[in-house]
Amino acid sequence: MANEKDIVVDDGRAKWSDLWLKEDYWAIWVGFFIILIAGLIMINGRSGIEADLAKYNGIIQAEKAKPIKTIELIQAQAAKKGVAGNKLPAAKTLISYLATPGKWTDNPLDSFVKKANEAAKPAAEEAAAKAKAALETAKAAQGAAAAASFGNAELNKAAESAIAEWQKANDAAAKAKAKVGSDKNIIPGLILLGLALGVILSVGMAAMGQPVGKFFIGFLGVYALCVFATFLGKYGPTSKYGLNAEIMSIVVGLLIANTIGTPKWIKPAVQVEYYIKTGLVLLGAEVLFNKILAIGTPGIFVAWVVTPIVLISTYIFGQKVVKMPSKTLNITISADMSVCGTSAAIAVAAACRAKKEELTCSVGLSMVFTAIMMVAMPAFIKAVGMPEILGGAWIGGTIDATGSVAAAGAFIGPKALQVAATIKMIQNVLIGVSAFCVAIYFATKVEKHEDGHQVGAMEIWNRFPKFVLGFLAVSILLSWISGSLGSDLGNALVSNGTNKVTVPLRGWFFALAFVCIGLACNFRELASYFKGGKPIILYVCGQSLNLCLTLLMAWIMFYKVFPEITATI
Q1: 546: which residues sit within 8 A by CB, 6+ positions away?
Q2: Could you write out the DSSP letters of every residue in 44-63?
Q3: Rounded to whole angstroms, how far apart are CA atoms 515 and 394?
Q4: Are 498 and 35 in contact (CB under 8 A)?
Q5: Which residue, 57, 275, 395, 530, is most buried by CB atoms nearer than 10 A?
Q6: Residue 148 host element (H or E)
């Protein structure tokens, strides 16, 4: 006879069997499994990395005591940056199988198979020879200065000048070598990755009582469409205008679903939430508290003060002014636009029990406006001469998708990229908070007002998206590990270690979800939600408020209240 706690009964209570029967939990287990594999690789290589860091830190400390910036100091600093978990043999092999189709312009095959540029080799060899000669000259000049115990100002100046010339030649050689590139063929990796993901996800489907064979076959179809959509999104002439892989994934799915129709054999694998929830658990690995503290208080104010104000204001505006007929669509769009795009939309939609079409509507709006903003905002920031850090903070607090934030920030400069990515990371913490608050509000206020029933704590727990707990657990765990290891080792094993595995896989899971969103969407069903243009009006007005408040808060925090922090970035 089955144990009472394992009997599945539809009484609204949490059950032990939920841990292996519910999608939310399987998203957590799959995410944990991937992080565990990456973590074991890092643990296995920790001793070597620790020894290398100690060696280079010793050199750096000794060389910094000298009056000039020596060759040995520069080389040790460069070598230290290269000490990372993703350089471990096992990690390099695993990461090579996670590659996505690359950028291409004229030849579509360049996206999958690419040969080294033989024509660029002579220039690279010439640049390498110049760098080698410059190094010998710099060593001679530094040796002369060292022979005088660095007490001769003229010799020191000559050494510094020669070392600077060597650095320029070395940078030129590195750029010339990059133009040569290397042979690349990601097709075998793509095949193995598809099969591996299919097997891993099939375990969860089997535990949830779904037909594994049908799911696996359908998954291969979804995965193939995902690869094709990514390939389209990497086409150079269109990708620079924001028509990236994410948008193409939804477009490909929509075109199939609304023309020939989603094939029956693919439908068992159209599991939008399974994929996106797993991706969100992996996203937690990127939200590290030590990185949040690097930007400090001004970044927290930009992300944690403006975001809830915009979310609440947009929801009220939607109800009172726009007169949105669906409260669930209203709150999903508000969270999508104010918090962090698709990730927040999925979590909040689950918390308020929004319809599938409402989530699709919200995600679609987010994708379109993200594509526009990631091109328009950097152009505007550069045109008006906005400070780089201010521009980065503005981008990080307003553009929805994490990848788009990084792309837009990089277009402005390295400091903008750092600030934008960190503020977006800080904002991502609000995914769980938003979902929890929305679950409480809709359970105790909205639905109680509509049907009059009393709501207890268990009802709030039942509607709270459990995968958010996985997101938070991963974030806290890896933040603690990174912090306990110290700055150098934590950065090598987590930021440049486990994250180099979780980030590309998170991207794959998101891409799978976007394709499935398109495959599951019918234009006729979706059209009713855009009636009167209310969702678009809501998004545009909410994002306008977001843009204004974020820019104002960023300016106040980074340049008026905490200018000393800004000066150190």
Answers
A1: 306, 310, 337, 338, 397, 398
A2: HHHHHHHHHHHHHHHHHHHH
A3: 30
A4: yes
A5: 395
A6: none
Q: Which pair of structure tokens corresponds to residue 311?
A: 């979310």
CA angle, 507 then 439 then 458, to 5°: 115
Identify the CA nearest to 84 among candidates 488, 474, 507: 488
3-state secondary structure 422-453: HHHHHHHCHHHHHHHHHHHHHHHHHHHHHHCC
Decide: 229 and 249 in contact? Cβ < 8 Å.
yes
- Side-chain-side CA neighbours of residue 203 (13 Å): 13
The dihedral over CA atoms of 181, 184, 190, 191, expressed in degrees to the nearest 10, equals -170
SS3 track for 231-299: HHHCEHHHHCCCCCHHHHHHHHHHHHHCCCCCCCCCHHHCCHHHHHHHHHHHHHHHCCHHHHHHHCHHH
CA proximity to 401, closest of 339, 470, 449: 339
**Tens-digit pLDDT profile for the chain (569 aa)?**
333 333 333 344 456 676 777 888 899 999 999 999 999 999 999 999 999 999 999 999 999 999 999 999 999 999 999 999 999 999 999 999 999 999 989 889 989 998 888 888 999 999 999 999 999 999 999 999 999 999 999 999 999 999 999 999 999 999 999 888 888 899 999 999 999 999 999 999 999 999 999 999 999 999 999 999 999 999 988 877 767 788 888 889 989 998 999 999 999 999 988 998 899 899 889 888 877 776 668 888 888 899 999 999 999 999 999 999 889 999 999 998 888 777 888 888 888 888 888 888 888 888 888 878 888 898 899 999 999 999 999 999 998 777 778 778 888 888 888 888 888 888 888 888 888 888 888 888 776 655 555 555 666 677 677 888 888 899 999 999 999 999 899 999 999 999 999 999 999 998 998 899 889 887 777 777 677 789 999 999 999 999 999 999 999 999 998 888 888 77
Rg (CA), the chain: 26
Q: Distance (Å, rounded) from C-alpha 542 to C-alpha 537?
A: 8
Looking at the DSSP assignment, which residues form a beta bridge with residue 104?
A: 235
Cα–Cα distance for residue pair 107/262, rounded to 1 Å: 30
Fill in the DSSP letter of residue 87.
G
Inter-helix orientation angle 153-180/71-81, to 10°: 30
The residue whose two tokens read 């800080």 is 426
Euclidean distance between CA atoms 484 and 536, whole angstroms: 46
User: What residue has token string 């408040």?
Assistant: 549
Instruction: Give the whole-angstrom CA distance, residue 71 versus residue 94.
Output: 35
**Total count of residues recorded for the chain:** 569
Asked if 374 contacts 398 with a C-beta cutoff of 8 angstroms, the reply is: no
Helix (H, G, I), strand (E, B) or coil at 104: strand
Q: Are 246 and 401 in contact (CB under 8 A)?
A: yes
Is the model's pTM score more than 0.70?
A: yes
For residues 257 and 522, the answer to whether their CB atoms sit within 8 Å is yes
Which residue in the block uniquely carries the two structure tokens 């995914």? 431
Q: What is the DSSP string of 548-561?
A: HHHHHHHHIIIIII
